[in-house]
Each structure stands twice: as structure tokens, then as C-alpha cells.
Amino acid sequence: PPPSATSTSIPISAPIPVQSRKPWLWPAIAAAVVVIAGAAAGMMYLKPAAPQRATRFEVTLPEGVTFSQYVSLSPDGHKLVFNATGEQSGLWVRDLDTLQWRHLAGTENSTSPFWSPDSRFLGFSVGTELKKIEVAGGPPQTLATIPNAAGTGAWSPDGVIIFGGKGSGPI
Fold first, then answer.
1. pTM of full prediction above 0.85
2. Which of 15, 63, 83, 91 suits a disulfide with 107, CB 3.0-4.6 Å?
3. Number of C-beta neighbours around residue 129 at 10 A
4. d(Cα 55, Cα 96) in Å, to the nearest integer?
């Protein structure tokens, strides 16, 4: 049917969706912010390690004591031991926070001192005997006797001691 004379048309304006010309812009900005924040956090937590300092010190021997050939720093870094020959032979121990050396009684004619992992004991040899002594004091204990002169040793965290003969011979 033909349009009636009573009908009127009213124009209605409706927004027409406009497609953005750069749909990648906001995701790219968000990604850049995440990368910058991650780099800043990484720089805060991954600071370069400070260079290690060398520590140098001089140790004077006790008066009248003749140094032999063995010196050793304890595993905890607090004590030093050396063996001496002559009239005051034996093991001499010094706590590095003091200036005094202590002679460990019963260690005369000893050689090859080596530390227990906890720094409480010293292993050493006297002739063909392997011995140990508590650094805090006490008499030495003979651990083993071997056919040849005992040499130096190593003490594992499990309490196993490995030592060899001087010059030649088995471990």
C-alpha cells in the first residue's frame, strides 16, 4: 500500500563504529611497560657481586721456636697450626683473634698436621704413628701404626681419615 499522508519520518542518528587504524598500539604499550618493569626489578636483585678482598697478615713465631715445613689454616678460618723442630718441637696453635701461640703437649717430634672438618681436632704423625689431639687440650690418641713413616692426611666430614707414608708407600 502506498504510504499514508499521516506518516512522518524522523531521522535518527546512530553512531557508526569506526575501526581504529592502529589496533596493536595498546597491547604494544602494555608489553613495553612490562618489559621495563621487569628490567628494573632485575637490576635491583641481580647486583654484581662485590669483588672479594684479599686478606694479608703477618704472623711472628714464638720466641726460640724453629719452624719446620708444615703450616695449616683451620677449615673455619680461625686457627693456624705449624710444626716446630728443635728444643720446642711439636704442634703450635694460634687462634687468629689472639697474639699468643700455644704448644700442644704430647706432640713432640710431630709432622704433617691436618685439621678435622669441624676444626676441633688435629691429625698428625710421629714416626710410624698416626695420632689426633683435641685443639682445646688433652692428650694425643694414637689412631694407627704403619710400617713406614706416616705422612700427611685428610679428614672427611664422615670422620674417615686417609693418610699416606712419607716418600713412598701406599695410602
1. no
2. 91
3. 16
4. 13
